[in-house]
C-alpha cells in the first residue's frame, strides 16, 4: 500500500467553473479517509482527478513518492469501486474478477490464485460460476469490490459505492468494508454524502464545501462537538 498526497489541487471546468479550489491532503499509508460534503461541493471531481478520469488544472498528485499527475488511470496503481457495480452481465463472477488481470497480461496461474484469494476474503467463493443476475445486491457489491481487490493496488478509491443499495444492505456493506479495511490495511479515499457512512468507515473525515476543505478530523472530532 502507499500514501496519496494532494498538494494545492485545483480543477477549473470550461466556463470558469471552479469545482476544486486548492486542496491539500495526505492520506497516510493504510489510512481510510472519507470525503464528505453536500452535493456539488467537488467530492466527485476530486476523486476523479486522483483516479485519472479528470485532468488536474493545477497542483501535484502523488501516489507514494511518485508524481502521477499526467499518468493514465491504469498506470496509477490504484483501483476504483463504483456505485453501479459495473459488472459484466454476460460473464460469470470468476470471469468478472479475472477480466482486468487478463487484460493486463497476467498469466493464468496468477489470475487463478488472486481470484481465489479475493473470493475467499469476500466470501463469494461459492458463487464463482454464477452470472451477476443470479446474485443478491450484497453479493454483487462484493464482486465489485473483488474486481478492485484482485489488482492488489497501492490504494483504493470509492465513489459512493453503497448509494444504490437499500437501507439494510447499506448497513451490512458498511460493516463489510470496515472489516476488510481492518484486515487489509488498505489506503482508501472514500466519497459519500452520507454522514453515518462517513462516521462508521473513516479513520479521518474531510469535509468539503465549495471546492475547499472546511474541516478535517476523526469522526468524533467532526460530529461529536458540543
Ligand atoms: P459533488 O461530487 O460533491 O456533488 P462535483 O465534483 O460533481 O460535486 O461538482 C462540483 C462542481 O463542479 C459543481 O458545481 C458541478 O456543477 C461542477 N461540475 C462537475 N462536473 C462538471 C463538468 N464536467 N463540467 C462543468 N462543471 C462541472
Ligand atoms: P476463458 O475466458 O479464458 O475461457 P474461463 O472463464 O473459461 O476463461 O476460465 C478460465 C479458467 O479459470 C478455468 O480453466 C478455470 O481454471 C478457472 N475458472 C473459471 N471459472 C471458475 C470457477 N467458477 N471456479 C473456479 N475456477 C474457475
Characterise this structure:
Residues 4-226 form the ABC transporter domain. The protein has helices at residues 43-51, 93-103, 108-121, 137-149, 167-184, 195-201, 219-223, and strands at residues 4-13, 17-27, 32-36, 58-63, 66-67, 78-81, 155-159, 188-191, 204-209, 212-217. The chain has 226 residues and is of the alpha/beta class. A 6-stranded mixed sheet has the order 6-7-8-3-9-10, with helices on both faces. Strands 2-1-4-5 form a 4-stranded antiparallel sheet, with helices on one face. The mean pLDDT is 92. The structure holds adenosine-5'-diphosphate (ADP) (2 copies). One adenosine-5'-diphosphate (ADP) binds at residues 92, 94-95, 112, 128-129.
What distance lies between the first and last C-alpha atoms, to the nearest angstrom? 36 Å
Instruction: Please give the share of residues in helix.
Output: 25-40%
**SSE string, helices as H and strands as E:** EEEHEEEHHHEHEHEEH
What sort of overall outline do the alpha carbons produce when their principal axes are compared?
globular
Strand order of the largest sheet: 6-7-8-3-9-10
Total count of strands: 10
User: Which hetero ligands occur in this complex?
Assistant: adenosine-5'-diphosphate
**Secondary-structure class:** alpha/beta
The description of the largest β-sheet is: 6 strands, mixed
Keywords: ATP-binding, Cell inner membrane, Cell membrane, Membrane, Nucleotide-binding, Sugar transport, Translocase, Transport
Protein name: Carbohydrate ABC transporter ATP-binding protein (CUT1 family)
Organism: Vreelandella songnenensis
GO molecular function, one term: ATP hydrolysis activity
Amino acid at each position: 500500500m502507499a500514501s496519496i498526497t494532494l498538494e494545492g489541487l485545483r480543477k477549473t471546468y470550461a466556463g470558469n467553473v471552479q469545482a476544486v479550489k486548492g486542496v491539500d491532503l495526505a492520506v497516510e499509508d493504510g489510512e481510510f479517509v472519507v470525503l464528505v460534503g453536500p452535493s456539488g461541493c467537488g467530492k466527485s471531481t476530486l476523486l476523479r482527478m486522483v483516479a485519472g478520469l479528470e485532468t488536474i488544472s493545477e497542483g501535484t498528485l502523488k501516489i507514494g513518492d511518485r508524481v502521477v499527475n499526467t499518468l493514465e488511470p491504469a498506470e496509477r496503481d490504484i483501483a476504483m469501486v463504483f456505485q453501479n457495480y459495473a459488472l459484466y452481465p454476460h460473464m460469470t463472477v470468476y470471469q468478472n474478477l479475472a477480466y482486468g488481470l487478463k487484460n493486463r497480461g497476467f498469466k493464468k496461474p496468477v489470475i487463478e490464485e488472486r481470484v481465489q484469494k479475493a473470493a475467499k476474503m469476500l466470501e463469494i467463493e461459492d458463487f464463482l460460476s454464477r452470472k451477476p443476475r443470479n446474485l443478491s445486491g450484497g453479493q454483487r457489491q462484493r464482486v465489485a469490490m473483488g474486481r478492485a481487490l484482485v489488482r492488489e493496488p497501492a490504494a483504493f478509491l470509492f465513489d459512493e459505492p453503497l448509494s444504490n443499495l437499500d437501507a439494510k444492505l447499506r448497513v451490512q456493506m458498511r460493516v463489510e468494508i470496515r472489516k476488510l479495511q481492518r484486515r487489509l490495511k488498505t489506503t482508501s479515499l472514500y466519497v459519500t454524502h452520507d454522514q453515518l457512512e462517513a462516521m462508521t468507515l473513516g479513520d479521518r473525515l474531510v469535509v468539503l464545501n465549495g471546492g475547499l476543505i472546511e474541516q478535517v478530523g476523526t469522526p468524533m472530532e467532526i460530529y461529536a462537538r458540543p
